[in-house]
Design a protein that fits this description.
The structure holds two protein chains of two kinds. Chain A is mostly helical. Chain A contains 13 helices and two strands, in the order H-H-H-H-H-H-H-H-H-H-H-E-E-H-H. The relative contact order of chain A is 0.14. In chain B, the strands form five sheets. Chain B has a six-stranded mixed sheet with strand order 6-7-8-3-9-10, with helices on both faces. Chain B has a five-stranded antiparallel sheet with strand order 13-12-11-14-21. The two termini of chain B are 48 Å apart. Classes of the chains: A mainly alpha, B alpha+beta. Chains A and B meet through helix 8 and helix 9 of A and strand 6, helix 2 and helix 4 of B.
Chain lengths: 283, 420
């Protein structure tokens, strides 16, 4: 009986793995094939001639590396700022009684639900007027705005879980409000902070609509990547054959942009899972 | 180290509810002061006002010779143990205890020395590297105390520190706290609703009800000379028996018979009409095991239930209270958070007594220990004022009446607000 359920579980597990990972493996395989192989009709699953040439090409392509730098810079700055602002806001919402608290929360939620596409037009015009078009801040500001609500909601839930006594104990022990916040509350809310940070980073890293609309390659007459991030840049890839999309290079770029995400998740997943508040109070 | 002087402290919450009404308590340097009362009596609020976690609406809080009303908690140099310990879960036991020192900017060597000293006192040495989450309740309790004793605080404040422990551990920690306080000789204010803790730990005990100070005295004074019905009912376990009584000359008429009380007591109660007599269970005895019954009076009554505990036995004798005092006793019962099922006399008998359920027994009562209370005000008419500590009702009856009135108003308003 046990053996049969074990087999069933493994069969189901394998089916799900194939369903989820086959496209990923396909992309990885594509990235190891030469351009000739991908443009010749229907290629086979495994590369005929295993080659790393695509990786060499793509990493020496300055457009791609610039886009990669843009992606990292914009995503990191948007994440850091968003998490800092969200931490303060969430703390105030969790701890202070003030008028309009509900309003702040519901507006934040409304912003999160607002479709991004509806903002593209107005933002395009505004950013051109303000000189923010095709700049890092031009992307960082909307990314922050869209991720703040989620971060605020996540973090205020975490702050609410932390017993008031923790802070009061710290204050009696001689801490200022700021010290109590920094030395007791923030460490306890760390899982929440990491969760918010990762969600924000993912959003900024993968975002496409704003990235392609609010940037341009033509910057003051000179050809460059401007503030374009990787997802947008990839849509402009041109291979050696102008009539065929450069499948292998696109696949390679996809693999390259996925690696940082995997690394980040592996680094922080333990932080997210760890329930740090256990043992604070009697239980 | 410092004395704590509370002068006419008033606390009103944002919704106007008066949690503490005109309370004045002076805690001497090195004294162990207990704040005790049923839940909602304002004892924790008072403690939090001392430490600075609650604002003081009116009155003056003096620690040492400094008025601290407007000082932040960290500027008051007090150490507090919270009811749920409030340990920092992300720090080891060592760092938890060291936390106040680190904030004060003490050097690492000094921190190490002081923390190890404290951990030795509390026998936490082998747990220093563990996180609070891995400790038992008693160990967490000790860590919380370690955090308090590690610094040179002016006073210790305890907010029901033992209420989360099981009975056995509670007894041990109680002794431990007492020993520690005696050794360190530090001013201590201790909040509890447990009267055993109040009686055993305190140099003096402040009994509070609905934010009003009822009596401030040593445990012995509270027990022997309660200032009013509430204190009499609150201190002592099993509680004092309350019976309707009328006094004529030296004779007191009780539901189960007439007894003679001392001349001086009788004089104080003269012409007051119907009174409430308070008699502690241990002031009764089975007349058959009592050799010398000449001092008091005896009466015969049918025993309903007997609980034999070995060293003593509790006998329950039902009686009719009469409608005149029933309301007063019911209100008292509410104040004490009790649930009075029926009016009955609890009598503590010697373990040698052979009285059984259903027997009609001859019970002796020590009439010199009978207290007589005014049913209208609850005041103890037979109190020995020289040995009763401070009873605010006697110092300044008007101020107390005013405080009581405000407590009534606040309760009525809150009830209304909740009803709406």
């Amino acid at each position: 009986m046990q053996g049969r359920t074990g087999v069933g579980i493994w069969a189901g597990f394998a089916a799900i793995m194939v369903w989820c990972l086959l496209p990923v493996v396909w992309i990885i395989m594509l990235s190891f094939k030469s351009v000739d192989e991908t443009s010749a009709g229907s290629p086979q699953f495994f590369p005929q001639d295993f080659t790393l040439a695509n990786y060499g090409d793509i990493l020496s392509d300055s457009d791609f590396t610039n886009a990669l730098i843009n992606s990292f810079g914009i995503s990191l700055i948007a994440t850091v700022l968003s998490v800092i602002f969200a931490t303060f806001t969430a703390y105030a919402i969790a701890r202070l009684e003030f008028r309009g608290k509900k309003l702040v929360l519901s507006i934040a939620l409304a912003i999160a639900m607002f479709p991004v596409v509806a903002l593209v037009g107005p933002l395009f015009d505004m950013w051109r007027t303000f000189g923010l078009f095709n700049t890092w801040p031009g992307l960082i500001i909307p990314y922050m705005s869209f991720t703040l609500p989620l971060a605020i909601w996540t973090l205020s839930a975490f702050f609410r879980e932390i017993p008031w006594e923790m802070e009061q104990a710290a204050q009696v022990d001689g801490a200022t409000s700021w010290q109590a916040f920094r030395k007791v509350i923030v460490p306890l809310a760390a899982p929440g902070v990491f969760t918010a940070a990762i969600l924000t980073f993912f959003f900024a890293w993968n975002e496409f609509v704003l990235a392609i609309s609010l940037t341009t390659t033509v910057d003051g007459g000179a050809t460059s990547t401007g503030a374009r991030t990787v997802p947008a840049q990839m849509s402009f890839f041109v291979g050696p054959d102008p009539f065929n999309p450069p499948y292998s290079q696109l696949a390679t770029a996809s693999v390259v942009v996925t690696i940082p995400i995997i690394v980040i998740v592996l680094l922080f997943q333990r932080k997210i899972v760890a329930g740090l508040t256990s043992g604070a109070v009697k239980g | 180290m410092a004395a704590i002087d509370m002068k006419n402290i008033v606390k009103k919450y944002g919704d106007g509810f008066p949690a503490v009404n005109d309370v004045s308590i002076d805690v001497a340097d090195g004294e162990f002061m207990i704040l005790v009362g049923p839940s909602g009596c304002g004892k924790s609020t008072l403690l939090r006002m001392i430490v600075g976690l609650e604002d003081i609406t009116e009155g003056e809080m003096v620690i040492g010779d400094k008025v601290v009303n407007d000082l932040a908690p960290r500027d008051r140099n007090l150490a507090m143990v919270f009811q749920n310990y409030a340990l920092y879960p992300h720090l080891t036991v060592f760092e938890n205890i060291a936390f106040p020192l680190r904030l004060a900017g003490v050097s690492d060597d000094e921190v190490d020395r002081l923390v190890r000293e404290a951990s030795k006192t509390l026998e936490l040495d082998e747990h220093l590297d563990r996180k609070p989450g891995n400790l038992s309740g008693g160990q967490r309790q000790r860590v919380a105390m370690g955090r308090a004793i590690v610094r040179d605080a002016d006073a210790f404040l305890f907010d029901e520190p033992l209420s989360n422990l099981d009975a056995k551990l509670r007894g041990q920690m109680r002794t431990e706290i007492s020993r520690l306080q005696k050794r360190l000789g530090i001013t201590t204010v201790y909040v509890t609703h447990d009267q055993t803790e109040a009686m055993t730990l305190g140099d003096r005990v402040a009994v509070l009800k609905r934010g009003v100070l009822q009596q401030l005295a040593t445990p012995r004074e509270l027990y022997v000379n309660p200032g009013n019905l509430f204190v009499a009912g609150f201190i002592g376990s099993p509680p004092m028996n309350f019976l309707p009584a009328t006094v004529e000359g030296r004779t007191v008429k009780l539901p189960f018979g007439e007894v003679q009380i001392p001349e001086e007591h009788a004089r104080k109660a003269e012409g007051k009409g119907l009174l409430i007599a308070g008699i502690r269970p241990e002031h009764f005895e089975d007349a058959s095991v009592k050799q010398d019954t000449s001092e008091g009076s005896t009466f015969r009554a049918t025993v309903d239930v007997v609980e034999w505990l070995g060293n003593e036995a509790y006998a329950y004798i039902p009686f009719e209270a009469g409608s005149e005092v029933r309301d007063q006793l019911a209100e008292l019962e509410r104040d004490l958070e009790g649930e009075s099922m029926r009016s009955q006399l609890v009598v503590s008998l010697d373990g040698a007594s052979r009285v059984a359920e259903g027997d009609e027994a001859e019970i002796w009562v020590d009439t010199s220990k009978i207290h007589l209370f005014d049913p209208a005000t609850g005041e103890n008419l037979t109190v020995d004022l020289e040995h009763a500590g401070r009873i605010p009702a006697n110092d300044d009856p008007e101020a107390l009446a005013e405080a009581e009135r405000r407590a009534d108003e606040g309760e009525a308003e809150r009830a209304q607000a909740q009803g709406a």
